[in-house]
Fold:
Amino acid sequence: MKHHPIVPRERILDTALRLFHEQGYHATGINQIISEAGVAKASLYLHFKSKEELGIEYLNARQDLWFTQLRLFTDAEKKTRKKILAAFDFLAYVNENEHFRGCSFLNMLSEIRPDNYALLTSIQNHKQELRQFFTDILGEQKNDAADIVYMLFESAATESQLFKNQWPIEKAKQAVSDLCKLKYIK
Amino acid sequence: MKHHPIVPRERILDTALRLFHEQGYHATGINQIISEAGVAKASLYLHFKSKEELGIEYLNARQDLWFTQLRLFTDAEKKTRKKILAAFDFLAYVNENEHFRGCSFLNMLSEIRPDNYALLTSIQNHKQELRQFFTDILGEQKNDAADIVYMLFESAATESQLFKNQWPIEKAKQAVSDLCKLKYIK
DNA sequence: TTCAATAAATAGACTGGTCTGTATGTTTAA
DNA sequence: TTAAACATACAGACCAGTCTATTTATTGAA
Structure:
């Protein structure tokens, strides 16, 4: 034994979490994962029956990590408006930390075929939870304010990845502020 | 000769246009392209020096096709508000025709590494032109109305791909209408 | 208009590499 | 003693890209 501080399964998952996000799902091979995780190939297939299953577990792990960090930002605020703005600040924080690699789930969406229901469902569930997150903050409003904020949030993530710049987040925040003043968002 | 109605280079590009969009860039191999285009491998490498160059030409061709079709929708309208809404109708039309495969450029963005400047620049140029398209319609407004519309447009495309449903487009259209009534968009 | 020269397109073998996944046998830890 | 983890070779498929050799099409000149 190499006296690793964490068990092989977690080393694999941690490495997949990093590599899939940095390089993409298809661009990352099993061999690179086991090499950087310091794990034998047979060990990987002992814990995950295929690369796709590892992909699903990757999304599950990312889901937990991502929402936990998001809530660290939003829970610190009390007012509705400030909670929303804090969510956008979280996006900017992630961009800085992860070099504008964007959303793991949307990146995966672009890589899979539409008939890959296993992965597609994981992605949809994550986004459904994010929609619910904004609905919980804003409540059900006739004008679908929560979904408008959700869509601004999503494009802020995508467009900042695309332009490698935080301006889409700043513009989205400004729009949210304006819409609050106009009482479109309450 | 097989009496093909169009020359090999166009057959390759047409096939790439279809396959890259349907299956993704990495998931589509050169062999499938030449096979479905009815072209010899040496012919492909006669017209394109690498797969990446074909990828760039693919984006260029998509850019022309996409904007031409978009303008067919928007040019038919005279009022600012109706022009914008027509752009969203174009999105819904594309979703129907292409089975909710989303935006070719954003899909490519998710597949490439951030240091692939050749492809990244093509993608950025396309989106920059789209931003300009909305700015041309809406004019320069203090509140960045054009960029807000741009961001709603982008997420409408992405989210309808994700949920395989037109609701994000409908909600974005409703938001645009509301913002017009509130004089946020003029 | 015919014919030779040139260019374009063809088929397909081949290289060297990567991919996911399996199988074998050994070592370590519980 | 049992199970987990190890290293590593291997299979079979696919990848991008090169090369050879042949056939087809075009073009220019006599």
